[in-house]
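Appendix B. One record, verbatim.
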Amino acid sequence: MIQLPEVKHFIREDLEKYENTIFKAIPGHLPELVLLDAQDNEIDRIDLSDKSREQCNELLTSRGFRLKSPEGEELNSPGGDEL
């Protein structure tokens, strides 16, 4: 089931709270999480259109993305790939 309103809330309100993430809009395409290695090579591509806002956040944390602290320090799990 397509959850685009949920994904839009995730992109607009939550994504910027994570370290090493960048949002790039591609008109006409369904939302995808693209994981890159340190050399910007694509290592995975995950369709987000069927995910809830909570599932999108859980996906990032399960992949090792850390939340930014208000001072710019990293708050949770070590490691992570760029979006």
